Amino acid sequence: MDFLEDESAAPWWPAPGLVQHSAGYALGRYRDELFDRHRIEHPPALREAVPKRRAEFLAGRYCAARVLERLQANTAVGIGRHRAPAWPAPVVGSISHTADRAIAVATRAPGVLGLGVDIEAELDPVTASELRPQVLGGDDERWLEHPRLSPQAALTLMFSAKESLFKALYPSVGEYFGFEAVGVTALDHERQRVGLVLNAPLPGSRWPRGARFSADYCHPAAGLVATLVVAGEAAASF
Ligand SMILES: CC(C)(COP(=O)(O)OP(=O)(O)OC[C@H]1O[C@@H](n2cnc3c(N)ncnc32)[C@H](O)[C@@H]1OP(=O)(O)O)[C@@H](O)C(=O)NCCC(=O)NCCS
User: Fold this and answer.
1) Torsions phi, psi of 194, nearest 5?
2) I want to staple 59 with a disulfide (CB 3.0 to 4.6 A). Which of 25, 130, 146, 183 is the partner?
3) Residue 97: CB within 6 Å of ligand 1?
């Protein structure tokens, strides 16, 4: 029996031109031979990795391969600098995984400079209080008192939104930047959207202080949240 389950091409964020593939996976059924069976390259960098890391990598790359097939790109996603996925141009995409689920999203839409996707299990109160000072800065904390969300749910959303923004901007920035670089301007539960703003210009001069982004969110399963950020030129559209 394979370790993949509940595989689906149904979009978590419906938008024409944004191709998505998700799959659950069971770590207990992971075996190294599955790389061959699914025709995914087992990179040397993973040889020393624990099975959990190999399994999540395989699940993510499997989803990426399905997405690339639908975009008619026949090169695999490589591993770039800082572990960033290297998508075959002109495809732009992103991968995320939890302990038992993975998703890949990608597009060929002109003007899209980066996509960022992130899945998170809702933070428990202890982890939330540990992460909070690292993730929130300025007056981000005001969103923790949300009429419709618990403080942990609000923090999970802001954390995930910032991680997705990091992934979306990394290809055009090329360097790590921290959570303090990004502020939260809105947490709109009706539209399922987190508003984000840059508190400082990012290296590379493309993204000035004050640049605004939004992270769309959804709940793919109970206790899970997923966010998506599209970073693009003004004319970018799907
Ligand atoms: C890189 C990072 C964002 C990954 O997030 P995560 O929640 O730990 O893990 P996820 O499962 O969601 O994502 C992992 C995938 O992200 C992708 N990824 C890794 N580094 C990346 C980068 N520099 N840029 C874009 N995508 C990256 C990879 O595809 C990776 O999976 P793979 O190695 O199996 O292919 C996170 O580990 C990190 O380093 N964060 C610090 C930087 C940051 O978020 N700053 C906040 C800015 S506001």
Assistant:
1) -110, 125
2) 25
3) yes
Q: Residue 83: CB within 6 Å of ligand 1? A: yes
Domains of the chain in start order, with CATH, are 4-108 (3.90.470), 117-232 (3.90.470.20)
User: 47: which 2 tokens?
Assistant: 């040889």
At 139-188, the pLDDT tens digits run 999 999 999 999 999 999 999 999 999 999 999 999 999 999 999 999 99
In the numeric block, the tokens 């993510």 are attached to: 60
Dig out the tokens for 132 from the structure.
């909070």
Q: 148: which DSSP letter?
A: S
Instruction: Encode burial over 103-140: b for 16+ CB neighbours within 10 A, e otherwise.
Output: bbbbbbbeebbbbbbbbbebbeeeebeebbeebbbeeb
Q: Give the residue carrying structure tokens 């899970």.
A: 224
